Amino acid sequence: MDVYEDPVTWTARPARPRWQLALRFAGSVVWFPVVCVLWAAVMAAILVLSLFADAITPFSTTFETRFLKATDRMLGGVARLASWCVTWPELRHEGDVDHYKARVDKAVAKWTARASAPIEPKKPRPPVECAIPLRVYRGVGGWYVADVALAQGWELRPTDENKEVRLWWAAASRGD
What we know:
Layout: H1 18-56, H2 63-81, H3 88-93, H4 97-115, E1 129-133, H5 134-137, H6 142-151, E2 154-156, E3 164-169
Antiparallel strand pairs: 1-3, 2-3
């Protein structure tokens, strides 16, 4: 049996020391605006490059996919620069199980509402997959996400519980 099939092994993370979170929050207040400016600069550069890429794409069969992969890598790299940042709610509610349960309930309910929405003509189909990030369920563990999601009709997918819990909307398996 794979680990993702046994969510009982997915326990909550231990509460981080308050002083460490306070230092990270102070650093986040200074660093996050820098990352936002950097992200905007990268987006502007991508926009300028995409104007030239639009002219090259008709003549090359692989240029578009390579350009999109490079764009994804650049934006992902900028996002990783802010991965250590701590938000104000994280600082205030570290170790508060009820707060994390409420966050998980809200996140799963949001995805359930999206996935169970009726299909409208000429509109994109509702999402059938989702990922709940660790930041949402840190204080209660992935097992709580699995319990809430399974009760609302989701199925577990292979996932790395240290990063996110991946879910599949079970009703999407049935034919429409």
